[in-house]
Amino acid sequence: MAASEPKAVELALQGGGAHGAFTWGVLDRLLAEPRLRIEGISGTSAGAMNAVVLADGFARGGPEEARRALERFWKAVSRAARASPFRRTPLDMLVGRWSIDHSPGFRWFDLISRTFSPYDLNPLNLNPLRGLLVDQVDFEAVRRCTNLKLFIAATNVRTGQAKVFRTHEVTADAVLASACLPFLYQAVEIDGEAYWDGGYMGNPVLFPLIDESEANDLIIVQINPIHRSDVPRRAQDILDRLNEITFNASLIKDLRSIVLLKGLVDEEGLNRASYKDMLLHLISAEDELRGLGASSKLNAEWDFLTHLHGIGWRTTEDWLLANFERIGSESTFDPSRLLA
């Protein structure tokens, strides 16, 4: 590799509602790094939105336009949320708490959604994310983008299997399907199949990147905390922890498979030429995101989004300083430690 040639990487972006603004900060810093080239992106839910916005901007004007597109998108998310009933209380604001656990709107919805489905509460199937995506993303440009490979995951309601939409298949419906929380929205129908949030079966999916992208360095951008030191006791805390476990289960499964395959190649003498030797990396701010509370994933205030962006930028800056030289030569993340 020539000294001036950027290092190629693949990105795997978790979903996590408004916490996707952390990923925005990560992407902003990676796009600003001339020594890196993003070749493929796998995204789920908010990760899928970040992925298609980045691809749209990249197709129109390279990394700098992709950075501007991401900022415009998250500003639009914040403007759209001004009418949301899910807002912090004055006390939350006074003490600097980002969660909306005490929001009357959130409390009411949490209670009523246990009895009534989106088909009862939203019979017209109105989804504000649709207008937001259509306004912000030129999906024709995304599908024509040849510089990036996209993999957007959704969960097939009927089969319970992951559905991966590739670059040429990416539409607003595919992204909405990837972000379709079944207690908030009706299932998204595409070609006669119904889909829910991709986080249930692929958050994010890793193997399309391994199988179909040329880069050997896979960077996972993690949003959802895997470990917690305390055992939840309140009903809301129990539900929040169950959601975290559920939305991390597919990632842990994929990492376990990678560890197993690497072990077979190393220990059983399998032909290395038949297997892609992935170098794994992880960008995460688990300690800072763990303290925010699950309900803050529905908080799209601009101050909160920029706070998360800042965490993402600083975390990535520190990660690059510590690990850039190792990209292309060795893994900086050992998933076996995580799985243990």
Structure write-up:
With 340 residues, the chain is of the alpha/beta class. Helices cover 47% and strands 14% of the residues. It has 13 helices and eight strands. Strands 1, 2, 3, 4, 5, 6, 7 and 8 form an eight-stranded mixed beta sheet that branches. α1 (20-31) packs across α2 (46-80), α1 crosses α12 and α2 packs across α6. The two termini are 36 Å apart. The model has no long low-confidence stretch (mean pLDDT 90).
* Strand count: 8
* CA-CA gap between termini: 36 Å
Helix/strand order: EHEHHHHHHEEHEEHEHEHHH
What is the tally of helical segments? Answer: 13
Q: Which strand-content bin applies to the residues?
A: 5-15%
Morphology call? globular
Gyration radius, rounded: 20 Å
The low-confidence runs, each spanning 5 or more residues with pLDDT under 50, are none
Instruction: Please state the average pLDDT score.
Output: 90
Oligomer: single chain
Quick one: biggest sheet?
8 strands, mixed
Q: Provide the helix percentage.
A: 40-55%
SS class:
alpha/beta
What attributes characterize this protein structure?
single chain, 340 residues, alpha/beta, eight-stranded mixed β-sheet, 13 helices, 8 strands, 47% helix, globular
Mind sketching the topology for me?
Layout: E1 7-13, H1 20-31, E2 36-44, H2 46-80, H3 90-95, H4 104-112, H5 118-121, H6 128-136, H7 139-144, E3 149-156, E4 162-166, H8 172-178, E5 188-190, E6 193-197, H9 207-212, E7 217-222, H10 235-267, E8 279-284, H11 286-290, H12 302-323, H13 335-339
Parallel strand pairs: 1-2, 1-7, 2-3, 7-8
Antiparallel strand pairs: 3-4, 3-6, 5-6
Helix pairs in contact: 1-2, 1-12, 2-6
